[in-house]
Amino acid sequence: MNQQYQVIDHSPSALPFGDADSGHTVPYQTLDDLGILPLIDTLCGGKRDSDELRELFTTPCETREIAETRQSIWRDYMSSDLSGVLDDFSMLIRNVQMASGRFRYSADGHRDILEQNLLLRTISMFCESMNDISSRLHAIHPKYKAMQSLCSTVIAYTSSQTFITMNQTAQSLEKKLKQVKFNIRIIPGKFNIRVDNDNSDEQPGLEEQLSYLAEPFVDNPSLARLVASTPQSAVGHDMDSILQIVLKRVSSLTPEPFHQLDGFAEVYQNFLPSWMPPLAVQIDFMNAWKDYTNRISEQGLLFSLPQFIGPYEQTGEDDSGTHGFVQENVTGLFNVVLASAGPMDHQSIVTNSYKICGDERIMVVTGANQGGKTTFARAVGQLHYFASLGLPVPATYACIRFTPLILTGFASKENLRDQRGKLEDDLLTMKLLLSQSLPDSLLVVNEMFASTTTHDALFISHKLFDIIRKRNYLCVWVTFLSELAAKPNISMVAEVRGDSKAKRTYRIVRKTADGAAHALSLLNIHHLCREDIKKRVDRP
Amino acid sequence: MRSLLYKPGKDGQECAWSSISSVEQNKDNQIAGIVCQRVTDLGLAEVFKAGSQGDARLSDIFERLILAGCDDVETIDYRQTIMRDALQSPELFRRIYSHVSETVQTIRKEKLSLFTSDYGDTLARDGRMLQYAEEGLRRIREDLIEVDATTIRSEGMSMLRMEFLSTFTQAYLENLREASVSLTIAPFRMSADVMLDDELNLRAYDVAVPEKERGILRGIFARRTTMNYEVPPNDISERQELKSLQNALSAKAAAAANQLYSSVISYLLRIEEGMAFYVGFLNLRDELLKLGCVMCIPVCGNYVGWKAQELYDPGLALRERICPVANTIDSLDSELMMITGANQGGKTTFLRSFGSAMVLMTCGGLVPASALTARPWRKVFTHFESDEDDSMHHGKLDEELMHIEAIVDCIKPGDGLLLNEAFSSTNERECAQISIEIIDALLSKDINVCVVTHCFELAAHYFNTGESRNDEFHKPVMFLSPSRQDDGTRTFLLTPQKPENRAFAEESYNKIFASIDC
User: Of the candidates B189, B229, B441, which has its C-beta nearest A533's C-beta?
Assistant: First the structure.
């Protein structure tokens, strides 16, 4: 850190989410199985594609306490105007860092005029923005301690004398540079620069001549559209050295402003306080999730902060009677991948609810093909995953276990291997999953052992159920074998609407599995019934 | 600027410049898929081939315009009057087309010859391309001036001629030439008034091509206010940078040059596009005449259905080099046509001939018949039974329904749909139920449907409800079947007939298996 700055002491609480490098990064396969890899790419790519940000999104909190701390920060971030200001701050830091990337490396002694000017512009932009951010922070009073100290740190920085001087110097210097004017005449290999205002040999401008010729075409709308899209040739960075030469000539014809620029750059080369960048990444983390959840909420799909409960912990909910303690209770659950893709076929995304009580541990999902079984299982996994990051989850209400470890077993997609090979693959996958033991885990299993005989699949599944129950894991198990849904497992069924023309609703409900096949009413599924067609033809 | 394809004030949804990009690139993939399907189903590839006569660009444009169709009857009418001119003076159309397409090719070659964004190369190149364009315009002007004005009857062609008489005058072309020459010089001699922007880049606010290199010399006498710089002779990269700087300073002038170039080229492309359309049909007509098949300009009218004389399948004619069987049908009052009957009786061929005629009619072109009167469909959609089901994930019926879904999402009132043996993979009852549901819905939305089917239950449904359907909401259904002579020989002609509950599979079987001893 540059010594000429008053170093502002920052306690760890200035970083609301603490150090990112505690906790274990989630394996790639799990994110892939849950279908959220592209989402995380989007979340990280939109702002800055930094490893730090990705790490925040792929590292669950180690303990329930850390997750709950994050939740309280999140409450502060969302409940005031704070998020807007902080987002602006992180964007500012990002821009400054991007600009710094260019001048930072040539810090050894020599600086050319262009680099000096880049620094000047960066500082001037930085000062203006920081003043704005600081004045907005003045008006906000966060409830949470860390936020309070963060705000005052920023405000203190902008009222320091160093900052004020830097700002003033930059402004006056910029003004001076803009007043420089000259004429340049170029022939291949040579140029001439003139700073007087001699216009004696004025020629008709080339532009004028050309636009006159284009006149007959202007009245044509489709041509005008084309013209508007004509790309402008950009001033590239491939001519820095000739620009330097020109500027050197200009600076010797009008030396004053360039001399001052040199001095300025010398003094302010490392102006950015070192506590700012890591803070910006954490704000990005919150901001990325906030933007995303806001966008999804526009479809009427709501996110909420989950309440964590332990396996034998009494909740406020009264669910006495036969069921015993509530293990999990979730309503309005949806799959973020579907939601990200937007509404399909003018149908809103279906939300689901479930409840796990007492000794229940395993939800077995059966039902119609393409009825939303896997989507539901993934949604449960996603719910627990985002909860473990300390973020709001895709459900209107969620009272769940804190599960820092989510295990996913998805049947391999390749069909090339023989039956036995596939069965063995699946068994190996399951073995690997169950060997990563942690007390609080969620297991998401999708269509495993689908290629084997029913008898074998039932046998293996029951064996695995025993292990899961013994370890007190929670589990979502997608299968087409309705026998597996028998008690004590919870039977969840991809619902088919009860009227004469069966219809997939993509709703998963708790009821007895009946294994009903349904090939009927294809028309309904394809939205090709008489009225559907009329509506679709009438669309705007 | 006039178009030969769209009436003034009716800007086509496809503009000339879109032909620069590949066909249908801007369109939804789904629509593109359906369009491809239509080409295959109707065997239109042969038609495009005959129309373009090996000219790749013509083929591109011809195909795109035919498949795009027109949105309204006025546009069809507009094109038909120009088509009459083309039939009257084919040589004029061919000559203008060859001039404009040559020009466009030359310019394109010039454009492709330069890959760098280096220096005023782009400026000089724009200058050269404008020179070629000027030559092209000059030649088209000569074509149009030479022609006997009384042979031009259509609004479109008269407008084009007027444009060259009044706008692209000798004087204009002269100025264009001068400007393009000075663009080619600019890279070697340029002067710019400059100020510094925020990034200390030089911003030119005026650029000119001076008559002489005076400034460099004068600099010697005015040392206090001017400075010269000469790039060291061996410093290639710095020399390059100076070029880049000059390039950047002339950016706005270059943009103006580019704008002018774009305007001119897109005007040329528009003429090329229009001419290609008519020349394509001239070629197609010549090719079919060689086989003894005639084409005509169809009559558009506000009818329910259509009637035709000697309607044939042009794809079949061109592919087999024959003059195929032609049907004469009057179905002017029917919104639904049902074709049933024997296999190999000419049902699908008939559906293709009708479909091709409607596609060619809706784009404003010539149709494969000696006469055709119809309500033009806005767009023609096809659903033909596919031979193979290569998908593992969905059943064949599912695939078909997905295709119908895709069609339903594109189809609009005023369009037409051709169904060929749809849903034949399921049982008869289900096939009929599905078909009726879909057909009824489409008919109620003013979409004509033409069905070839094996499914007797489907045909019977419309036959039995025929009487009650003929009211102000429903028009009668036309039932056609392949006719045969008394000895059972096929004629491949279709005649109006009541649907019969018997396919001729047994017959086909007997014929094919005749030589096998059971």
Answer: B441
- Please name the residues in contact with B319: beta carbons below 8 A apart, sequence gap of 6 or more: B43, B46
Neighbours of A159 (CB within 10 A): 10
Is pLDDT above 50 for B24? no
Question: A534 CB contacts (<8 Å, ≥6 apart)?
Answer: B441, B444, B445
Q: Where would I find the beta strands (DSSP E) of B347-402?
A: 371-374, 380-384
- Whether residue A461 contacts residue A348, with contact meaning beta carbons closer than 8 Å, is answered with no
User: Which residues in B lie closer than 8 A to residue A225 (C-beta atoms)?
Assistant: 15
Among A250, A216, A155, CA closest to B162: A216
Give the C-alpha separation, A269 to B398, whole Å: 66
- Residue B84 to residue A5: CA distance in whole angstroms: 85
Which positions 141-170 of B are in contact with A (Cβ < 8 Å)? Answer: 167-168
Positive or negative: CA dihedral A515, A519, A522, A524:
negative
DSSP string, A16-57: TT--TTSS-PPPHHHHHHTT-HHHHHHHHHHH---HHHHHHH
Q: Does B199 touch chain A (CB under 8 A)?
A: yes
Asked if B97 and B144 count as a contact pair (C-beta separation under 8 A), the reply is no
- Cα B272 versus chain centre, distance: 13
Q: How does pLDDT run across A359-400, given as a tens digit for each residue?
A: 889 999 987 656 688 889 999 999 999 999 999 999 999 999
ipTM, 2 dp: 0.70
Provide the pLDDT for residue A327.
84
d(CA A287, CA A46): 11
Q: How far apart are CA A204 and CA A202, in angstroms?
A: 7
pLDDT in tens, A101-113: 666 545 445 557 8
Residue type at A446?
N
> What tokens appear for B513 in the block?
């298996």
Distances (CA, A) of A221 to A99, B22, B147, B439: 41, 22, 30, 40
Task: Tell me the chain B residues in contact with residue A205 when contact means C-beta distances shorter than 8 Å.
Answer: 206-208, 253
pLDDT at A500: 37
A523 touches chain B (CB under 8 A): yes
The band of A520, judged by pLDDT with boundaries at 50, 70 and 90, is very low
Give contacts of A231 with chain B, Cβ < 8 Å. 258
What pTM was estimated for this model as a whole? 0.56
Least confident interval from A316-320, A504-508, B27-31, B228-232: A316-320
Which residue, B470, B407, B462, is CA-closest to B435? B462
Q: Is B146 helix (H, G, I), strand (E, B) or coil?
A: helix
Q: Peptide bond preceding A142: is omega within 30 degrees of 0, i.e. cis? A: no
Instruction: Note whether B182 contacts A: Cβ–Cβ < 8 A.
Output: yes
Residue A322 in this model has a pLDDT that exceeds 80: no
